[in-house]
Each structure stands twice: as C-alpha cells, then as structure tokens.
Specification:
With 334 residues, the chain is α/β, with parallel strands linked by helices. It has helices at residues 6-13, 17-24, 32-45, 51-56, 72-77, 79-93, 107-120, 136-144, 166-179, 195-210, 224-235, 249-261, 279-283, 295-310, and strands at 63-68, 98-103, 125-129, 148-152, 161-163, 184-189, 214-219, 243-246, 271-274, 289-292, 318-319, 324-326. Strands 2-1-3-4-5-11 form a 6-stranded parallel beta sheet, with helices on both faces. Strands 7-6-8-9-10-12 form a 6-stranded mixed beta sheet, with helices on both faces. It is elongated, with a radius of gyration of 23 Å.
C-alpha cells in the first residue's frame, strides 16, 4: 500500500501543498482552523514524513517522545521514573535532542498520542516503557513507520531497546528471606499484564516454593494508597506473612507506616523489602532493604538504541546491568 503524501492531504483538504507544508511544520500562513483540519486529515491517512527529506528542509523534530501510564502527581514521588528520565535526558543532550513527555490514563490513549505525534511530526521516534505480551503500541509504531525502542525487563526482539534480567535478583531475594526463616512471603506486585510484573511474580514464587516457602501475591498500582491498603489486608490474615516484598519504594514506605500503626515492630515481627531502591529507602526508620539498579544508565542505553534506529541502524536490544540486593535494617529473622 502506497504511503500517504502531502499531495494526498492537499487534495483531501482542497488546499495547496504549500498550505499543507505550513500546517504540518507549525509555520505561520494558515489559520488555526485550517491547521487543525489538515492535521486531522494527516492522522486519518497515517501520514509519516520521510526523515531525510524533513532534515533537508530543516523540519526534523529533533525530539523523542515518552508516554507514561502514570499521573503527574505519581511522577513527583516515584524515584524510578525520575531516574529513568534523567538517564534519557543525559543521552539526548549530546546530539541536541529534546524529550517530549506526556502522561496518559491507559494504553489506548498512549497509542493515540503516538499517532498524533507521528502525524504532526512532533517527534522523530518514541520510547515504549513496560512492554506487554500482546502490546498494541508495538503494532502501532510499525504501522506508522515511527522509529521506536523498548525499555523492558525481559529480552524482546520486536524492537531495539534495553532490557534487564529481573529473574536473578527475584530468586536471590527469595533465597535470602528463606534463609532468615520466613515461611510465608507476600508480594505487593505491580499491575497485571506487564512483562516485568509476571517475571518477578513467577521468579519469586518458584524459588520460594523450592525452599518450602509459601507466597501470597496481590496487585498494587505503585501508589502509596495501594501499598497501604494491601498491607492492611495482608496483615489482617489469620496466617499473616512474616515478610512483605513491594514492587517499588513508594508502596514499601506506605507498608512500613501501616506496620507501625498496627504495632508491628520491623524487622522483629515483620520484614519489609522494596524492589526499587531510592534515597527515601535510606532515610526512613528502619532503612529499607531494597533492590538497587542503575536506572539512569538503563534509560540512557534504551535512548542510545532509539537514536541509532532514527538514523536507520536497527541494532538488537542490549542488556542493562542487573539488580543487587542492598540489605538494611528492615529485614531480619522470622
């Protein structure tokens, strides 16, 4: 099927090709209403400008896009995303690219943002965070011809990008807690459907099972509210867990607060682990045992792969450094 051109858009809109060029490039010379109509037609036709041709005319965006399924309020608290963005920005500073960042409520909205960015030529490529098994974002960027790279926690060759092995440290964590005598471990996991959630769940569960340790897994959403609510539910069980593992630092700190409210001493009566490390984990009392990773380096690796893809070099995904367990005061014998 032939790719749509500016001439196709001009015919559909009943305007000149120059007017279409002005509208797509954000240049003056067309009214706001006409610009919106032209952009809408470009989206309908799946228009994607040729990168080298755009660069010749000085119209390359010189920007990459990142869409996160988080509220802006959550971003201010969650250190992982801030560190990831810092790594992305550091990699972009050399070639002089900008970062377009947008928060959305669901994955369908993320796909629509990618389509709009592509039609309006706002970005030269996008990073796709938290890949899924059947990920509509991957199909969409391929359809659009939009360069993209994955930031994931399992090897995935559908697109270039960076990945890390969450299995090893999840298994190490299960072995560590089993060696302390814990026989019932709970995990406050992330949302279902994400590859890294399923990998961490299964690795912890299988390694614990080998050692005769029971696991209870519940789903959180990375917010303090969900961490607190689920901790109360877990600690209200007749056979409550003696250790709780949280998928990020925010939920773990919320769980620590709930343990204090319920009069449970940490770690004498309950051990707590955060699967994402941050300065917050070190300043609470007691400091939280956590899994430490180079998140900024992770973001930089994925961004380097995306910049290469924009230049036409489709390299395979690269593995980022793995996590290591930082033992602090929040874990002890069962």
């Amino acid at each position: 099927m032939r790719a749509a051109t500016m001439a196709d858009i001009a015919r559909r809109a009943g305007v000149s090709r120059i007017a279409v060029s002005y509208a797509l490039n954000g240049r003056p010379g067309v009214s706001a209403d006409l610009r919106e109509r032209i952009l809408g037609i470009a989206r309908e036709l799946g228009y994607r400008a040729n990168g080298p041709a755009l660069a010749m005319h000085g119209a390359a965006a010189r920007a990459i896009g990142l869409v996160l399924l988080r509220s802006s309020a959550a971003l201010t608290l969650e250190v992982f995303r801030r560190q990831l963005i810092a790594g992305i920005q550091a990699e972009l500073s050399g070639p002089g690219f900008a970062l377009a960042l947008q928060m959305v409520a669901d994955i369908g909205e993320e796909v629509r943002v990618h389509r709009r960015w592509s039609a309006e030529r706002r970005v030269d490529g996008v990073l796709i965070f938290d890949p899924r098994v059947d990920d509509p974002r991957i199909a969409a960027v391929r359809e659009l011809g939009l360069p993209a790279a994955l930031v994931g926690s399992a090897y995935d060759d559908r697109l270039p990008g960076a990945w890390c092995d969450d299995r090893d440290w999840s298994r190490e964590l299960a072995r560590y807690l089993a060696a302390l005598g814990h026989r019932h471990i709970a995990r406050v996991s992330g949302p279902a459907g994400m590859l890294h959630t399923e990998i961490r769940d299964e690795a912890l569960r299988s390694e614990a099972s080998v050692r005769g340790v029971r696991t209870t897994i519940v789903r959180g959403d990375y917010t303090g509210d969900s961490g607190a609510r689920l901790t109360r539910e877990l600690l209200g069980l007749a056979d409550r867990p003696t250790a709780v593992v949280y998928d990020n630092d925010i939920m773990a700190i919320a769980g620590l607060g709930v343990a204090g409210e319920l009069g449970l001493a940490v770690p004498a009566q309950l051990s707590i682990v955060a699967c994402e490390d941050s300065p917050l984990c070190e300043v609470v009392g007691p400091p939280l045992t956590a899994v430490h990773r180079d998140i900024a380096g992770y973001g930089a690796l994925a961004t380097a792969r995306l910049l290469a893809a924009i230049e036409g070099e489709l390299a395979p995904p690269v593995q980022a450094s793995g996590g290591r367990l930082e033992v602090r005061g929040s874990t002890g014998p069962a």
